[in-house]
Specification:
Blueprint: H1 2-14, E1 21-25, H2 29-39, E2 46-50, H3 54-68, E3 71-74, H4 78-82, E4 87-90, E5 109-112, H5 125-129, E6 132-135, H6 138-144, H7 146-153, E7 163-164, H8 165-169, E8 183-186, H9 191-207
Parallel strand pairs: 1-2, 1-4, 2-3, 4-5, 5-8, 6-7, 6-8
């Protein structure tokens, strides 16, 4: 859920405010959380679901259509879906690029969620090189995110990365500045976000009297 929330926060600053069509690439449980989080920020009216296992895309579409009350369609070709979408989320275990420059239209926001170790890759380096890129933690993305592959390919340098997400949220760096730019959020996962989410849950539980104290010394 926290991973989905990170995408939603990034999208709030980097996607077009009128975004209404989403592609979810990777129809596991994380894909569900991603879509639900985006629903809290945008008036999503349609979602395309893509997975290399077509039965998973079909199951995802059926489940989320019923749960969220929006149109969810399984897509057999990823680019067919993304070219109709305002937001694209990749949350797979792919080790080769899935999304290329010709697969996204101007104004698209991409959240690259699945690449969390150096062997994984979802976004083609050339697409990163021609987009406004925001990282969750630049140092981490440089060694294990999709940015890692763009740096290795020599098509992008650290100085070309627009900002870290925290800088954008804090107003230190700009978010989206035009309706046509392609923006990409390289999300590798932040322990600090996990801790912050845990604090919110703990404080809410305390306020509602739903805390059980365990004496570890007993």
């Amino acid at each position: 859920m926290r991973t989905g929330a990170a995408t939603a926060i990034a999208a709030k600053h980097l996607a077009r405010p009128d975004s209404s069509v989403v592609t979810i690439c990777g129809c596991g449980q994380q894909g569900e959380f991603q879509l639900e989080a985006l629903m809290n920020v945008f008036k999503i009216c349609k979602c395309f679901a893509f997975d290399q296992a077509t039965n998973r895309a079909d199951q995802f579409a059926k489940k989320m259509r019923s749960k969220l009350g929006i149109e969810v369609e399984a897509a057999s070709v990823l680019s067919t879906a993304t070219l109709q979408s305002d937001i694209c989320v990749t949350c797979t275990t792919s080790r080769t690029p899935l999304l290329f420059s010709n697969d996204v239209k101007p104004g698209t926001f991409v959240s690259a969620v699945g690449t969390d170790n150096p062997a994984k890759q979802e976004i083609d380096p050339k697409l990163l090189a021609t987009s406004k890129v925001v990282a969750d933690i630049l140092d981490q993305c440089a060694v294990m995110g999709d940015l890692h592959h763009a740096f290795e390919a020599g098509v992008l340098k650290r100085d070309n990365v627009h900002a870290e997400l925290g800088e954008v949220v804090a107003g230190l760096k700009t978010g989206r500045t035009s309706a046509t730019e392609i923006t990409i959020f390289d999300s590798t996962g932040m322990a600090l976000q996990d801790v912050a989410a845990s604090v919110v849950v703990y404080e809410k539980a305390m306020a509602e009297g739903r805390v059980q104290t365990i004496d570890l010394a007993a």
